[in-house]
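Narrative progress, year one. The postdoctoral researcher (J.K.) led the effort to move from monomer predictions toward full complexes, under supervision of the PI. The following entry was the first complex the group processed end to end, covering 938 residues in total.
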Amino acid sequence: MIASTSSRTFTRSLLGCSSCASPRRTLLPPLPHLAISSTRLAIGGPHQSRSSSSSGPAGMPTVATSSLLSTTREAALHTHGLRWRDDESIHPPTKDPDGNIVPGSVPTFVEPSAEDLISVDQGGRETKKMNLYQAVRDAMAITLSKDSSSVVFGEDVNFGGVFRCTMGLADEFGSERVFNTPLTEQGIAGFGIGLATMGKTAVAEIQFADYIFPAFDQIVNEAAKYRFRSGDQYNVGSLTFRSPCMAVGHGGLYHSQSPEAYFLQAAGLKVVIPRSPIQAKGLLLSAIRDPNPVIFFEPKILYRSCVEQVPVSDYQLPLSSAEILQEGSDLTIISYGPPLYTIEGALHLLANPSEDIQSLVPRDLRGLKVELIDLRTIMPYDIETVVNSVNKTGRCIVVHEAGKMGGVGSELAAEIQQRCFLKLEAPVQRVTGWDTPFGMIYEKMYLPDQVRVLDSIIETMRY
Amino acid sequence: MLSRASQVRVLASVARTTPRAPRTAARQSDARSDAASLSLSYTKALFSTSRSSHLFPLTYLSHSPVFLDKVASPDSSGVIPAFRLLDGQGHVLPEVPEEWKKQLEEVPEETWVKLYKSMMFLPALDTILASSQRQGRISFYMTSYGEEGVVVGSAAAWSPTDEVFAQYREVGVLVWRDYPLSDLMAQVFSTVSDKASKGRQMPVHYGSPAHHFHTISSPLGTQIPQAAGAAYSLKLSPERKGDCVICYMGEGATSEGDFHAGFNMASVLGGPVVFFVRNNGFAISTPAAQQYKGDGIAARGPGYGIETVRVDGNDPLAVYLASKEARRRAVEGQKPVLVEAMSYRVGHHSTSDDSSAYRSTDDVSSIKKLDSPLFRLRSYLEARNLWSSELEEATKVEQRKSILRAYAGADKEKKPAWEEMFGGVYGDREDGGLERHLKEQKMEVKRLIGKWGESDMWKKDLERHDGGIEAVKKW
C-alpha cells in the first residue's frame, strides 16, 4: 500500500497537477475494458443458471445471486465512474474573497489505473467483502477519521444503530462525535442544520424514512433554502441525512415507505438512493462532501442481503449521474434501489420463461435487448443518460416502489415525453406501488414484482 | 452505573424518609440563596438548578399522589417573579440590594448611553420604514415598538462574536452591532446591494456573517433546534471557546414543536446557548392567554432541566444584567439558559396587520404612556447626568438624517440582476456552473425575455433590475 501511494504521488507530481480540479489519468496505459463495466446482465447466459436462494423459478437471480453485484476484487476496482480520494482533507475547495478557488484546496481525485489491479501485497488497492450496512459504516468511518469537524448522530446511533450502520463508531471516534439525540426528528434535522451552518460536517440519521415527515419543515423550508435565502452568505452544504427506506417484507405502513418524490420540489436539496454496497459507500461519501444538503435513502432490505467486494480505500461515485447497468437497443427500463434486482429477475423470466408462463411470453421477445438504467440520484436526476437511451430504444418503463401519482415515474415520463416525443413508439409505462398506503399483508401485490415488470415489458413491446 | 442491588438499597432508603421534606427543603433553601443573591421581595429572579441524578425515573417516593399545577418559587406564590431594577419612572427601586446597585454602577457609562441611543434608533427607523410601506415603496415591514429595551438591552449583554439566531423582531441586535444602515436599507428595499438575501427574501429578513447574525427565515421556531446544533458546534470548537449562541423567539413561537425539540436537545446535548423569549403578550391577534395556560415560558425551563430567569422587559437595565448573567452561566456551564423578557407589543404585528381589530387602542396608548422602556432608561440616564434634552434632540435629528440618507440611497438603487433568481439554489458544481435543470430553465427565461422583453407587459419590470434586458441577453 505504501509503495503504491508514493508511486501515485510521484506520478501526480510528475504531471504537476496535484491541485488540479479535473479528473485525470495516470501515465499508465488504460486497462483492457472489462466486460462487467458496461454490460453486467448477460441475459440468458450460462452463468444465469446459478441456483436461486429464494422463491421464484429455479435459476432466477435474486439479490444474493445478482450479476449486478461485483463479487471479485477486479470487478470492484473497476466500478464505473469510481474515483479515488487519496487526500487527507475532505473539505470542499476554499474560495478567496473574490470567489476564486484557492490553489491547493481542491480535492484530489485519482482515476482508477492499472496499478490498482496489481496484488495487494505489491501495493494494489484492497477490497473487502461487505454488505450494505457495513459499506455505509465504512463511509462514515472514513468521514470521521479524515474530517475532524464531522459528527454522526440520531436516535440510537451510539450503540451501533438499529441497523448496525454505526457499529463501533462511538468507541472509535468518541461519544462527542457519534451520539444519541432525544427522540425528535424535527430536532435532529434542525440540530444538523445548526451544526452545518457553523461549518461542521453533520451526518444525521432518521431511523426510518417513514419518520422523516416531522422533519419535513426543517428539511424543505430550512435546509433546502438556506443558501438561496441568505444570498449565499450561509449554507448547510455539509449536512447529510441518512435514512433507511423502502419495503422490507413485513414493514406495514410505517417501515416501508419510499418518500423520495416528496422532496422533488424542494429546490436546493439532493436525494440519492444506492443499489449496492459499492454504490452505497461511494455515493454516501459524495453526498457527505457535496456542497449541498443531501438526503441519502438506504434500501433497508439490502442492508444484509446485498454483498459485494468493496474497495477499502476512500473513493467517490458521482451524484446526478445515472448508470447504465446493461446496454440494449429495444427497450429502456429505469429504476433505482431494490427494484433493479426485481427487473433482473423479470428479464430472466423473459429470456427463460418457466413452463407455466411460456404461453404468456411471446417467443419473439425472448431475445429482447433491454437497456437497464440505475438513476442513483433522484434529484437533480440525470436526464441526459435517460433521454439518450430512450431516443435509441423508443420505449421506456419506469419502475419504483413508491406510489404512482406524483412519483418519480411521473416526473421522468413527462420529461421523456417532452424530449423524446418523435422517437417514442409506445407510451412510457410506470410500474410502481399503488396509490394506497403500504398495507402490510398486501406487500406481494403492492410492490412491482417480476411478473408485473415482465407484463409491462410485453405490453410495451406489443403496443 | 449502580448495580441492581444497590439501586434497590437507594430506593429503599429514599422510601424510608418522609416523602418530600428533605428534598423540598433543600430545593427551597438553594432557591432562596440564589434568589437572595439577585434581589428581594419586589424584584426577584430565580435561577433554578437541575440536580436530578437520573439513576431511575423516580426521584423520591410518596405514599399518596402529589399533584402539582404551579412552579415552586421562593415566595410560594406559584408565579416566577420578574427581575426588575427600575420603576416606571426610571428610578432605581429602593428594595434593590446594594450588590445590584453596585453592578449597575460598574457598567461603563458609555454602554448605557449607547444602549439608549440604539433603543432610540429603533422607533426612528420604524416610523420611516413603516410609512414607506404605506406609500408602497417597500412591500412589508415589522416594527419593534415597545420591545426596544428587550432587544437592545439583551444585545448589549452578548459578546460581539456570539452567534445570534433571531426570529424577526430583533433588528435591535444588528443596530447594537453597528450593522451598516446602507445594508439594512438594501435588504428592506431589495436592492442590488442587498447582501443579506440578494432580493430573495421579504423585508426584515436580515443576515450577516460579519455580525454573527444568522439569516432570518419566516417559519417560526425553526431557529430553536438550529441554535441547539450551533451551540453543540461551539462546544466542539476549542477555537470558539468563550463564545455563546443566542436564540431569540416570541412567546407564540414557543408553541411550535421545534421549541420542544430545541430546548430538549440543547439541554441533553449541551453547548452554550441563551434562549431568549420576547413575551410581548400577542402572537398576531392571539393573546398570550390563548397561547398557554402555564406560568408563561419561564415555567417550562426547569422542566427541561434548563436554568431560567424572568425579567421585566421594559427595564433595559434589568434585561442587560440578567442577560449578562444568563450568558455567563451558559458559557461556564456549556449548557442552555432561558431568559423570558416580559414586555408589550405596542405596534401592529406587521404592516399587514391592524391590531385595533383585536385589542383596544386605549390599552395600547395607556401602556405606551405608563411603561415605556425608552422613558425609563432616559430618566435613569438623566438622573445620572448622562443624558439631557439637548442630547435627546440632537440625537433624534442626527438619527433621522442618517436614516433618510440611507433610505434615499436605497430607494434609487436598481434591483439585483435577474441572474440572481437562479443563483444559490445549489452550491457550485465542480465545473462552476448551475445544475443541469436550472441551466435549462435559465436559458428558457433568456428565450422568453428575448422574445417578449420589450412588450409593455414585461419591459418596466425587467428594466428595474441591474443590467435590465441587455444583461439577460448576454447569458
